[in-house]
Amino acid sequence: MRHDDARPEMAGPVAKPPFKVLVVDSDPSLLAKARSAVEGLSIDGAGVDLTGATSAAEARDALQRHPDTALILLETALGGPKAGLELVAYLRRELGNQRTRILVCTDERDSETGSADTGSEDEAIAANDVGDWRVKAELTPRALRTAVAGQLRTFASLQALAAGRKGLARMLVATTGLLEMRTPDVLFPNILPRVVGLLGIGHHALLCIQGDTLPRDRKIRVRASTGRFAKWKDVEVAELGEPRVEAALERLSPSSETIIEPDFCALRLRANGGITGMIYVEGRNDGTAREWQLMELFRNKCSIAFENALLIEELNTSQKATVLAMGALAEYKDNAATGHLQRIEKLVGSIARELHRREKFRDELDADFVEKVGLAALLHDVGMLSVSDETLGMPGELTGIDMQMIQRHTEIGHRILAEAAVPLRGRSLLSIAAEIARYHHERYDGSGYQEGLRGSAIPIGARIMAVADVFDALITSRQYRSAWAVEDAMAWIVERSGRDFDPDVVDAFVHVVRRFQTDDPGWFPKAGGGHGMLGGAIGRKLRALFGRRAEAM
User: Fold this and answer.
1) Confidence (pLDDT) at 98
2) Percentages helix, strand, coil for the chain, rounded to the nearest 5?
3) Where is 465: in which H helix or E strand?
4) 386 with 410: CB under 8 angstroms?
5) Which element (helix H / strand E) includes 83?
6) How far apart are the first and last CA of the chain?
7) pLDDT, tens digit (0-9, with 9 covering 90-100), for 308-344
8) How far apart are CA 90 and CA 102, in angstroms?
9) Closest Cα to residue 541, out of 484, 466, 491, 482?
10) How far apart are CA 227 and CA 225, in angstroms?
11) What is the residue-wise DSSP string for 511-546?
12) Torsions phi, psi for 524 (to 5 deg)
């Protein structure tokens, strides 16, 4: 993916908070000298804020209240021979603060070390992580200013290193698994929590898309939202009543892919085909170079995931259109079963999801299978294309070669689909469809065709399809009978559970149909309608499966 070198649009410099410096000395002269020394001092745009403490107890309280203290100017003799070093130990060990710098300003060089030699001084400095050790009498205002500036720069470097480590950790969390989110429905809701966690500036965020509707237009639409925007989804940004949000998103362009302002940031995600993703996060940020670099890294990663998801969605749409066309070819002569394919797809997929929810057939039913099986089921009768119109239109009971041709549609359908699935890796949609086509007329007790498989030897997709196909045939009008009532069709299937159908599949089927009756009663076909040649073929298939009692169906 192309990467623009253009920096993000950023607001003017944001005032940085001053460095907090704590002067700990019972003698107020050190605080006065420090105030004079640091007057006007600025380190990377940040000034200095001095406070004083006259005892170790006051200093402890100040450090608890201000854990971001950058520097301590410490007189070690605070009412006891080791009070100063005990305060340092409290800071480093009890508070776990390893960043605050310490500059010891002592009246006498040997006041705490017990020796004036350089070796003892070095040991004390190393043991207590003391940044510097000075004698007050030698500290001119210029020398103190230089020493304070050096320690503050060290503190700023430690802060930057820590922020960098945290930023990298947040980046790993934000980008982990992005490329595995392979569809927009999965990716879009997961982007916002990640970018919000990465930036740490607020949880009010929007993910918007431009150009993903047909016909194409330039309208920006909300696809995911969080925080105060959470109620908005699948609406145009222009309808939100948020002119600042709309203006910010309109500013995004190939030359301004990241915009950082004091109270929001916006990112542009690119994709082929004229589709653009946009992220808006509302909240205060400091606009530092580190933050925009993190956002640029995230934006680039997110753009790749965004484009991949759209490409996969397009492939899936194309695949579904192809499958629907192939399935429609197999039933195009049937004027009786309008909506058969759509009902089969929904019923098979819903039964599979219910079985997966119940943790049935774990070896066969995983999330990938559940996602594909409904679409694969549309091709169950593709082998019927090999049966002549003459045979399909033949009145009465078929015998001999004509019945063999009808029954061979399972074998022919399997061969067509299995050959098409050869180039595809893993358990593809076509390989699942091939199994369903071959085995959906097997019976649970082994009395079906072509191979007489029984029980779990029949692939789970075919066991689900057997229930769905027969149910849809029963509740649809045929040339030799009227449609059955849904309750009668369900009762008939339940009665044959354990003989013709897998009992677990039947249980899931009943649950699914009950849910359809409550949530989507219009899903069931309306009574009446014509009867085509394939309708007659389905009737003969039922009679072949269930004998003469199918005449009553």
Assistant:
1) 83
2) 55, 10, 35
3) helix 460-474
4) no
5) helix 83-89
6) 60
7) 888 777 777 777 777 777 777 666 644 445 688 889 9
8) 13
9) 466
10) 7
11) HHHHHHHHH-GGGSPPS-----HHHHHHHHHHHHHH
12) -75, 145
Residues linked to residue 451 through DSSP beta bridges, in sequence order? none
pTM (predicted TM-score): 0.54
530 touches 336 (CB < 8 A): yes
CA separation for the pair 407, 384 (Å, rounded)? 9
Whether the per-residue pLDDT at 392 is higher than 80: the answer is: no
DSSP state letter for 501: B
CB-CB contact of 266 with 220 (8 Å) = no
Q: How far apart are CA 469 and CA 503, in angstroms?
A: 16
Whether 34 and 140 have beta carbons less than 8 Å apart is answered as: no
Angle at 35 between CA 30 and CA 41, to 5 degrees: 130
| 20 beta partners | 49
CB 262 within 8 A of CB 285: yes
Q: How far, in Å, CA of 439 to CA of 301, rounded? A: 44
Q: Which of these, 191, 189, 199, lies nearest to 163 by C-alpha position?
A: 199
**Rounded Cα–Cα distance for residues 398 and 481 (Å):** 18
Instruction: Evaluate whether 151 touches 101 at the Cβ level (below 8 Å).
Output: yes
Give the pair of three-digit tokens for residue 18: 């001053």
Q: How confident is the model at residue 535 (pLDDT cuts 50, 70, 90)?
A: very low
Q: Identify the three-state secondary structure at position 33.
A: helix
Sign of CA dihedral 188, 190, 193, 199: negative
- Cα gap 1→300, rounded to integer Å: 8
**CB-count burial class (<10 Å; 0-12, 13-18, 19+) for 113:** buried
Q: Which two tokens stand for residue 520?
A: 């989507």
- Here the tokens at position 196 are 């919000």
> 210-225 burial string, b = 16+ CB within 10 Å, else e?
bbbeeeeeeebbbbbb
Contact between 483 and 477 under an 8 Å Cβ cutoff? The reply is yes
Cis amide leading into 189 (omega within 30): no
CA distances from 96 to 71, 89, 441, 456, 481 (A): 15, 9, 71, 61, 83
The answer to whether 278 and 246 are in contact (CB under 8 A) is: no
Top mean-pLDDT range of 150-159, 236-245, 300-309, 343-352: 343-352
Q: Counting Cβ atoms within 10 Å, is residue 157 exposed (0-12), middle (13-18) or buried (19+)? A: exposed
| CB-based contact 23:50 (threshold 8 Å) | yes
DSSP-assigned states of every residue in 265-326: EEEEEE-STT-EEEEEEES-----HHHHHHHHHHHHHHHHHHHHHHHHHHHHHHHHHHHHHH
As a whole number of angstroms, the distance between CA 98 and CA 118 comes to: 24
